[in-house]
Amino acid sequence: MARSTTPLNSTQIDKAKPKEKEYTLADGKGLYLLVKPNGTKLWRFNYYKPYTNPKKQALISIGSYPDVSLQQARQTKDEYNALLAQNIDPQAHRIETTITEQNRLVNTFAYVAEQWKASKEDVIKPLTLSKNWRIAEIYLLPHLKDLPIDKIIPAVVKPVLDIPYKANKAKMFRKSMRLLNEILDYRK
């Protein structure tokens, strides 16, 4: 039968003083607080990896206390236990989620626009680049920055380019359209 652990409370955590050697305060279901000799308090989650025979023990760092509160650590523990119930390794899931998020950020219009700007720094005059970038900041980036680059289609772009067009700024409309095309072509 599994041992029952009394859940931690914030008073116990705050009163935990550093000792000569590091020690742990268990909260239950794999969550514990590691107290280091220098006074640092770290949340850790201990679990057995699914799909390993024999079961291998693994450890995930959740964060440091008080940056990660007791409630946040418990919420993360519950998420990890839910993943384990589905035979998903929380550590692998966390890495996969991080990579997916990084890929999502790399494929946004804002990221590609920044890359385009960096590629043009040695090619065109600084004043021209500055003017072009200002057009992007005013007319393009506020509306398109978080969109994945492959989701930018004419139906999405038309309302964005209509802003300078409807304001009778034909020159800005043309420059915005040219700049948008340059940025999209740069990605290819």
Q: Can you describe this structure?
A:
Residues 109-186 form the Phage integrase central domain. One of its GO terms (biological process) is DNA integration. Keywords: DNA integration, DNA-binding. It comes from Mannheimia haemolytica (Pasteurella haemolytica). The chain is an alpha+beta fold. It folds into two domains: 10-91, Integrase, DNA-binding domain (Double Stranded RNA Binding Domain), CATH 3.30.160; 109-187, DNA polymerase, domain 1 (Orthogonal Bundle). 54% of the residues lie in helices and 15% in strands. The chain contains seven helices and four strands. Helix 4 runs antiparallel to helix 5 (126-144), helix 5 crosses helix 7 and helix 6 (154-166) packs antiparallel against helix 7. The radius of gyration is 26 Å and the shape is elongated. The mean pLDDT is 88.
Report the major sheet. 4 strands, antiparallel
Indicate the CATH architecture of the largest domain: 2-Layer Sandwich
Number of domains: 2
- CATH homologous superfamily (4th level) name of the largest domain: Integrase, DNA-binding domain
At the fold tier of CATH, the topology name of the largest domain is: Double Stranded RNA Binding Domain
The total beta strand count reads: 4
- Secondary structure tally, helices: 7
What's the CATH class label of the largest domain? Alpha Beta
Uncertain runs are none
Q: Roughly what is the average pLDDT, rounded to an integer?
A: 88
Q: Which radius of gyration do the C-alpha atoms yield?
A: 26 Å
How are strands sequenced across the largest beta sheet?
1-2-3-4
Distance between the termini: 60 Å
Order of helices and strands: HEEEEHHHHHH
What best-fitting shape do the alpha-carbon axes yield? elongated
Proportion of helical residues: 40-55%
- Quaternary organisation: single chain
